[in-house]
Amino acid sequence: MFFDRPDSGELAVLVHLELSSGQEPEDPREFEELVLSAGGDPVAMVGGQRDTPHAKYFVGTGKLQELQGLVEEHRAELVIFNHTLSPSQERNLETALKCRVLDRTGLILDIFAQRARTFEGKLQVELAQLRHMSTRLVRGWTHLERQKGGIGLRGPGETQLETDRRLLRGRISSIEKRLSKVRTQREQGRRSRQRASIPTVSLVGYTNAGKSTLFNNITGEDVYAEDQLFATLDPTMRRVELDDIGAVILADTVGFISHLPHKLVEAFRATLEEASNASLLLHVIDAAADERMHYIEQVDEVLGEIGAGELPQLRVFNKIDLLNMEPRIDRDDEGAPIAVWLSAQTGAGVELLYQAITELVGEEMIEGELILAPTDGRLRARLFEQHAVGEESYREDGCSIVSLRIPYSDFMRILSGLNLSFAELEWHGEAPEDYQAAGF
């Protein structure tokens, strides 16, 4: 840190006000869960209503006195607001309460700092923290006449505040350059997957909706999954094989939350781009949550911010085991899947999810019985590599008949690689109708 702050502890007094400003209020229960996720120990919650925030302290003078009493009574070393405080409000509150004061953005940044595991994740968290800190440097320097010494630097020099700001700008610039490289690498990976015609399916949703548990169920992995907010921070991608589709890249992403601080949306743009470039979004929803419609709206809002609002989306209502419901698929008027009800914890309904993904992501398939001569060994080998052959039988002349089912693009890529054309192939019975009509 570039400024001195009181030693912080875990005993925390929470502040949640209902404001008449027209902004949608935060959820006090979610606020308490955030504090617990950060490792805090809430000892008291201060509530109330105001038309507008107090310019100096955010709360009124009466509430400020109440907070001072609670801090002294519980010997709390931290006061956390479920609101966004201005730097001056934060500074004035710390002076009045004689303890550390944190707002909602700072709290979420602290949780992210604890959960970041990869190098990229730590960089993104540090970037968000530095941007947040850059507006709060002034609190630590009431003396602004410190000078920077050294040959060639004598004279008026720099104030310490100016030095800190310069150091911050330099570090922010350095991190942005590194994250730009990460973004370039991700873009190269996406282009290679597109060239290979491998669709990407991204799990998105409100924090603690069960995305990582569902990811583990589908992939057989052991990604960290706990019943807490922001258990997943770093994106995880795995290749999975699905019937009738073949290879699919499944991406587990960071969870969203109400009024996600804009600093975090900006800092995590490289990560969130995995969602904005997906072939299909699986919007995982906690079906047992009382506020589930509100959570759906918040996720859709963030998806709009990152340019993913218009992507194909399948809603996945998770945790139906808590509601004693049976798994099912909901469809629109045209019969396309729009929602799947399942339990990632028990696995009930996951096969319905596979079915829905196949219908939404799967391309037009070539189906038929293909006759392969003994000289077509390379073509036969490639078809088996793609898991495109269901059954195989042999005729007396040595030719084999394979029951074929494969996406059109995959089949044409195989033929192109072997310098073959569709017209050269021999079929048992009629050739696939769609391609006869197309003139192949």
The helix fraction, in percent, is 25-40%
Shape by Cα distribution: elongated
Content-based structural category: alpha/beta
N to C succession of SSEs: EHEHEHEHHHEHEEHHEHEEEHEHEEHEH
Biggest pleated sheet = 7 strands, mixed
Give the DSSP E fraction (strand runs of 2 or more residues). 15-25%
Q: Would you identify the regions where 5 or more consecutive residues have pLDDT less than 50?
A: 1-9, 139-157, 436-440
Helices, by number, come to 14
Q: Would you tell me the overall average pLDDT?
A: 78
Care to count the β-strands? Answer: 15
Enumerate the strands of the largest sheet in spatial order, edge to edge or round the barrel.
Answer: 6-7-5-8-9-11-10
Compute the separation of the termini in Å: 68 Å
Write the layout of secondary structure elements.
Layout: E1 11-19, H1 28-37, E2 41-50, H2 61-74, E3 78-81, H3 87-97, E4 100-102, H4 104-115, H5 119-133, H6 160-195, E5 200-205, H7 211-219, E6 236-242, E7 246-252, H8 262-267, H9 269-276, E8 280-286, H10 292-305, E9 313-318, E10 328-331, E11 337-341, H11 350-361, E12 365-372, H12 377-385, E13 389-394, E14 400-407, H13 408-417, E15 426-427, H14 433-437
Helix pairs in contact: 1-4, 4-5, 5-6
What would the keywords be for this entry?
440 residues, alpha/beta, 7-stranded mixed beta sheet, 4-stranded parallel beta sheet, 14 helices, 39% helix, disordered N terminus, GTPase_HflX_N_sf
